[in-house]
Amino acid sequence: MTAVFDNKSILVIFAYAPAGLGHLRVTNALYRGLPSHAHALLLGSHDELIRVLHRYTSVNPLVRAIFEWAQSSRFQTLFTSIYRKILRSNTKDLYNQMLTILDQRLETPKTVLIIATHFGLAHQLAVIKNRLCSERNLRVFLAVQVTDDTPQYIWYIPGADVIFVPSDRTKKKLENYILNMNYKKVNFSVNPYPVNPVFSQPFNNMDLQSKKDQLTASHRSYIHIAVPISGAAVGTKYFEKLMNQLYLKSQRYSFHVVTKIAPFTENFIRNINDRPYIKLYTSANDRGVIDQYDQVYNENIISMEITKPSEQTFKSLIEPYCVGGPIMLFANPVGKQEEDNLYFLRRHHLMPSISEQKIIWEKANKNQLLSADQKAFFLEKARSWRGLLLPFHSYNSAEFIHWCQENSIFLEMQKMRFNPTMACKYDECLQNELNSNGVREFWKKTADLIR
Prior knowledge:
With about 450 residues, the chain is an alpha/beta fold. About 45% of the residues lie in helices and about 15% in strands.
């Protein structure tokens, strides 16, 4: 079905923005699953404003509060309308970039498929798409990948040929918004969130046993934990203190920290660089950070990952017997999109409900054992969980992680497998939302789009 990409007259362009690592991670996942022999290029936005806004909304509480208010309040419709107009009126530089790409090709393509993983670029590309078609006699298609399971109105991209969303809930909410505003319809497609296909490779028996040994309380092997730092370097103090506290609990814990070399990570890197229980992976650019993150999983058997509930949330779609399927431990959410991502996991029973979470937090905080009935209940529940939300404060988080390790919660989570009756009532839900083959399905659907 994807053989259409073997055609040399078809050019695939990946468009991403410098707004943290999430958009680039999704782009990387899609690129990794690109059908063989396809002709592809990477188009990065030069708009530094996007990077600055992303960092300030991530680390500055006042700016973040303003953006969250605009996104979630009754003013969201007005805010989005203004923001959308600003984005769509600023297309000159991007259009010239596209012309340069086309002019540098030895053979002019007849069909261009643009993959956008940031709404800002998506809006701009939607505006220039028809102009490229008419002026260069091309067929141009725009496919947009929403990078969180969030129904924020800005992801309505007039002119896009297809907008991929991770859930039917987000699709319906965005369709209702369009209907209520009497806007022109676009094609929303529910597709499993695209995770790097390399991470879905199963462990061999020896490596799988090694991972189980890490999660066994009575074993003495090192427990390898990945700690990717966000592009905006949110929460570095929290992660630093958490790693220190965990190591004080047990010298089994070994950390693999991936971060970008930047002025705002300088102190963090210096503080952890000489600690024997932390291995540091760094790069001066975003793409290098993505490669370093892949390297962590290629060279180590990672049993846990401590991360923000951003796009990393959807590694929960990878089953724990696979290379990229560690126990996912989420720091407190920042922003509506991270709250929405956690809600995706909760409604599919891939993490504890709020009431269940409260019970195990309290038990861990007091370092209490579960009663026999509670233990039977929670160990059974854990077999359907892929992730856990960590309590506020690094000390409490360390207490909670170690308590789960000692009470076999993580070991039971390693047994999790997807099946239709566990997560939802219908096989269709499992296929469209809870699956690690999102990249493959993405390319099948885009092949149908352009054929």
